[in-house]
Design brief:
Layout: E1 3-4, E2 8-13, E3 18-23, H1 32-49, E4 53-57, H2 67-83, E5 88-92, H3 97-106, E6 117-120, H4 123-131
Length: about 130
């Protein structure tokens, strides 16, 4: 494990070269500042490891990424993914429909629209896709 906080954890699977970002149920109480801090930790590890494949587990993600924050993520996280030549980004949906929609909207922005992104309801299907 690379990082573990109240809201999320970050892991790297060397064998399969997959970077995991898993959100926790506590994300329901996050503020915009907490979200930015979590994403800044993520960005540091993205720059360090330069992963080609990333799986983001949203099954316990309950934060609504509002429009201003969506642009921030695109400019500060997705831009790094693109610069590092990330090949695939898989998301496993949350049970919270609103947070899913706000995450999807984040990936319709400038940098993110150039990434190979897929959304899944099933974790195993996401893993299968990311490994190909």
């Amino acid at each position: 494990m690379l990082f573990n906080s109240k809201y999320s954890k970050i892991e790297y699977d060397n064998n399969n070269e997959i970077f995991f970002h898993t959100w926790k149920i506590e994300s329901i109480s996050m503020t915009d500042n907490n979200f930015v801090a979590e994403m800044q930790y993520l960005t540091r590890f993205l720059k360090l490891f330069k992963p080609l494949r990333i799986l983001i587990d949203l099954r316990e993600f309950y934060f609504n990424v509002m429009t201003q924050m969506q642009f921030w993520v695109d400019d500060n996280v997705n831009k790094v993914l693109l610069q590092n030549n990330c090949q695939k980004v898989a998301f496993v949906y949350s049970s919270n429909i609103v947070s899913n929609l706000t995450v999807e909207q984040t990936f319709n922005r400038n940098y993110s629209s150039k990434l190979n992104v897929a959304f899944f309801k099933d974790f195993n299907k996401a893993m299968k896709w990311i490994k190909v």
